[in-house]
Request: fold
Amino acid sequence: MCPPEHFTVEYAINPWMDTSVPVDPDLAVKQWDRLRETLVGLGHTVHVLPAQPGLPDMVFAANGAFVVDGTVYGARFKHEQRAAEAAGHRAFYESQGWQFMAPTETNEGEGDFAYVPDAHGGLILAGYGFRTDPAAHAEAQEVLGRPVVSLRLVDPRFYHLDVALAALDDGNIVYYPGAFSVASQRVLAQLFPYAVLADDTDALAFGINLVSDGYHVVLNHEATGLAHKLAAVGYQPVPVELTEVRKGGGSVKCCIAELRH
Reply:
């Protein structure tokens, strides 16, 4: 995770960003701290990547890389405003002794990649349409040695896969069908017939931008309907409030890069 010490909305590179809406920097840090404390309280270890001046979106740590079995596939951002973030993420992973593979294709890390470990022997779901080049899907497959399923995003409000789909446990997912092309919806229905489906309201509340450890599901507090659905099928919803970073077009998952050894 990377603290929002320099977070602000200085530019607009997704439909959620509005430069006329001010960010409360103190509240942003306070809410981020609560998220970090929530994860620690659930028994997880959190590494903190230092924030860098001039990189307001670095708080969205998920976009910096994608990690499977100790191998890191680095990010190469589409927009120049975020391009310099990649070096900071690379420095972190290399300092920790992770095997880092630099990308040649445009991709935004876990923003557009999700890993479902036990689904069909370990499956990577990959989004394209707005940020990540489909060629990065093939590159990720070669780097990480897992089959990649390409999914086309068609609604600009769901510009990254992680605002439209999330892994819940080793074999199942939650997603919002309306974010995907008809063909991609068919693929998801075939691969995950028991997936939890989110509706428009919870999807637009960033409810799917969540993290799950297989039981606890940390998600935006506004996604009450999705929380009930998750509880009904055996998960434990853990709501958190992230009103400030939401102004940048992200929520829980965007703030967390998952480290898979």
Notes: The helical segments are 25-41, 85-95, 135-144, 182-191, 200-204, 224-232. The longest strand covers residues 123-128. The chain has one domain: 25-255. The mean pLDDT is 97.
